[in-house]
Amino acid sequence: MAHKRKDVLSSGSSPAKQQLASVASLPYPSLSCSPLKAPSIQQPSQLLTFSYNSNHVLEFNDSALRYYVEPLRGADLGFHYEKSIMRPAERGRLDALLAALSRFKNALRASSSSRSAVNIPDVNVICWRGVMTKILAAPYEETDSLELNVMLINGTFYFEEHLSDAKLEEKNAATPRNRLLSYYGYAFESYCTTSQPGGHHDVPLDSQDFPGWGGDVNTNIQWCSVVKTKLADRRVVMGGEVDCVRGTYYGKTDNYVELKTSLSLRNSSDEARFEKKLLKFYLQSFLLGVPEIVVGFRTPSGHLTALQSFRTMEIPRLVRGKPGAWDPSICLEWGDRFLAFLQSTIQSSSGREVWRVSFKPRVGITVVMLNEAEVAEVVNGEERVGFLPRWYWEESTTVDCDPGTQSASQLSTYNNTIRLNSELSTLGHLHLIWRALPVGYGYRTAHSQLAANCSIKASLATPVKAPASYLYTSCK
Question: Can you give the pTM of this predicted structure?
Answer without folding.
Answer: 0.80
